[in-house]
Amino acid sequence: GGAGGSGGAGGNEGEDGQYDEGYDEVALALLGSHAHEEGIDGAAVFTKALSVLAGATTALDPKSFLDEIIPTARTTAMRERLRRLRAHLGRHTFGALPPTLCEQEEGAGPELYGVVPFQIDAPSAVACALWAFLYAARPDGRPEDAIVEAVAMGGDTDSVAMMAGALTGAMWGDAWVPAGLLDGLEEGAVDRLKASARAICDLATCDFATAVETGAGARR
C-alpha cells in the first residue's frame, strides 16, 4: 500500500480528548512503512477493536462495540466511516454500505472489480473489515460470513479479509473455521497459525510477557 494505504491498518488523544495508551505503540510499529496519519489511525482503530473483542466477557452488542472504538479515531476520514457504520446498524441499508465506505486512493487498475475499488486507503479498508465482521454478527449470521463477504465485495480482498478474519477470531475463536479452509495446508501450518494467533491475542490484551514467550515458541 501507499503511505496511507490499507497495509498500515493490518498513547495519543483520540476524539473528544480521550487518551488511548496503545496509539503511540501502533504509530511506532508502523514508522518504517506506513507513517501517514490515516494509515496509523486505521491501524490504531483496528488494534483497539481486536483488544475489545479479545477481552469481551459478554455477548457482542454491535452498537456498544462501535461506541467503544470510535473515540480511538483521530482523523476525520476514520471517524466518519465508523459513524456511518454506527448509523446504519440494524437498518435495511446496512447490507449495501461497503461502496459508501471506500475512497479510491489511486487510479483504477486491472485489479478493479467487485463493488469496491482495489487501492483504497486505510480508513476505508478498516471500515470494510468492520462491516464484514458486523454483517456476520447479525442475528442470523455465521462467523464465516465475515470472510465470505469481505472477499465478495471485491477490491483489496486480501487485506480486508485478513482483518475481518482477525476480528472474527478475536470474538469467536477458531471452532467456526470450516474444515475445507484448512484442507491442503502444509503439515504443521495450523499449529503455527494458532500459536501466532495466541501471541497476537496476548498482545491485544496487554499480556506482553506471555505474548513474547508464545511468539518465540511459534518460531522454533
Short description:
With 220 residues, this protein is mainly α.
What would you note in describing this structure?
- The chain has 220 residues and is mostly helical.
- The longest helix is centred in the first third of the chain and has 18 residues, at 37-54.
- Mean pLDDT is 79; it is low at 1-5, 11-19 and 107-112.
- The two termini are 30 Å apart.
- The protein is 53% helix and 2% strand.
- A two-stranded antiparallel sheet has the order 1-2.
- It is built from 10 helices and 2 strands; from the N terminus they run ββαααααααααα.
- The radius of gyration is 17 Å and the shape is globular.
- The protein has helices at residues 23-29, 37-54, 62-69, 76-88, 122-136, 145-152, 157-172, 179-182, 189-204, 208-219, and strands spanning 12-13, 19-20.
Topology of helices and strands:
Blueprint (H helix, E strand, L loop, with lengths): L11 E2 L5 E2 L2 H7 L7 H18 L7 H8 L6 H13 L33 H15 L8 H8 L4 H16 L6 H4 L6 H16 L3 H12 L1
Order of helices and strands: EEHHHHHHHHHH
Q: Low-confidence stretches at least 5 residues in length (pLDDT < 50)?
A: 1-5, 11-19, 107-112
Q: What structural category characterises the helix and strand content? A: mainly alpha
Spatial sequence of strands, sheet with the most strands: 1-2
Per the principal axes of the C-alpha atoms, what is the gross shape? globular
Tell me about the largest β-sheet: 2 strands, antiparallel
Helix content bin:
40-55%
SS element count, helices: 10
- Average pLDDT, rounded to a whole number, is 79
* Radius of gyration, CA atoms, in whole angstroms: 17 Å
Total E-strand runs: 2
Distance separating the two termini: 30 Å
